[in-house]
């Protein structure tokens, strides 16, 4: 198969990101997915090798009692979306499980705010993968939260 050279000098097969986007769309259509409704509300604006960007509008359904984006929503978005950024570095599209996820909340995002999420996969190795996630108010550019995600990469099915 033809290989494409990326800006990180990683070689991935042509069509890899297309397969990853299909995987993402299938996630949204999986009835048992915990994060289904939250991820379905996201709009992926950029998908490149090592990078996924998305937006979501804060609604009542994902707000806390103070009317701002719920901390659990931040954590779920960081977990799920950064997994796709990590998978973009992995030609085998291996499954993975979270080892560590930390979120730092800097400013609340009120209902109606469009939040931009930037997920950067820093490294995918044989066993571990690492990602940095930032959340911005898409209108003001203010930094809302940061997150770090470490995942254990599962062996591909034989």
Order of helices and strands: EEHHEEHEEEE
What is the global morphology? Answer: globular
Q: Portion of residues in helices?
A: 10-25%
Estimate what percentage of residues fall within beta strands: 35-45%
Q: Structural class per helix/strand content?
A: alpha+beta
The number of helical segments is 3
How many DSSP-defined strands? Answer: 8
Q: What is the makeup of the main sheet? A: 6 strands, antiparallel
Strand order of the largest sheet: 3-4-6-7-8-5
What is the terminal separation in angstroms? 20 Å
Low-confidence stretches: 1-9
Q: What's the layout of helices and strands?
A:
Elements: E1 3-5, E2 11-13, H1 16-28, H2 36-40, E3 43-48, E4 51-57, H3 71-87, E5 96-105, E6 114-124, E7 128-137, E8 143-153
Antiparallel strand pairs: 1-2, 3-4, 4-6, 5-8, 6-7, 7-8
Structure characterization notes:
By secondary structure, this protein is of the alpha+beta class. The protein has helices at 16-28, 36-40, 71-87; strands at residues 3-5, 11-13, 43-48, 51-57, 96-105, 114-124, 128-137, 143-153. The strands form 2 sheets. It has a 6-stranded antiparallel beta sheet, covered by helices on one side. A hairpin with a 3-residue loop joins strand 6 (114-124) and strand 7 (128-137). The radius of gyration is 16 Å and the shape is globular.
What's this entry about, in short?
With 158 residues, the protein is α+β, with helices and mostly antiparallel strands. 22% of the residues lie in helices and 39% in strands.
Essential attributes:
single chain, 158 residues, alpha+beta, six-stranded antiparallel β-sheet, two-stranded antiparallel ribbon, 8 strands, globular, disordered N terminus
């Amino acid at each position: 198969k033809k290989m494409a050279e990326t800006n990180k000098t990683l070689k991935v097969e042509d069509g890899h990101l297309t397969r990853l986007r299909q995987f993402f769309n299938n996630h949204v259509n999986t009835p048992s997915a915990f994060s289904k409704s939250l991820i379905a509300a996201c709009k992926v604006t950029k998908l490149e090798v090592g990078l996924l960007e998305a937006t979501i509008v804060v609604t009542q359904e994902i707000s806390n009692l103070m009317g701002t984006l719920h901390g659990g929503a931040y954590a779920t978005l960081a977990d799920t979306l950064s997994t796709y950024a990590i998978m973009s570095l992995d030609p085998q599209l291996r499954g993975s499980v979270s080892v560590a996820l930390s979120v730092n909340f800097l400013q609340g995002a009120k209902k109606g705010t469009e939040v931009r999420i930037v997920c950067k996969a820093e490294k995918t190795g044989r066993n571990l993968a690492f990602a940095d996630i930032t959340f911005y108010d898409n209108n003001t550019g203010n930094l809302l939260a940061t997150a770090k995600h470490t995942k254990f990469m599962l062996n591909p099915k034989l």
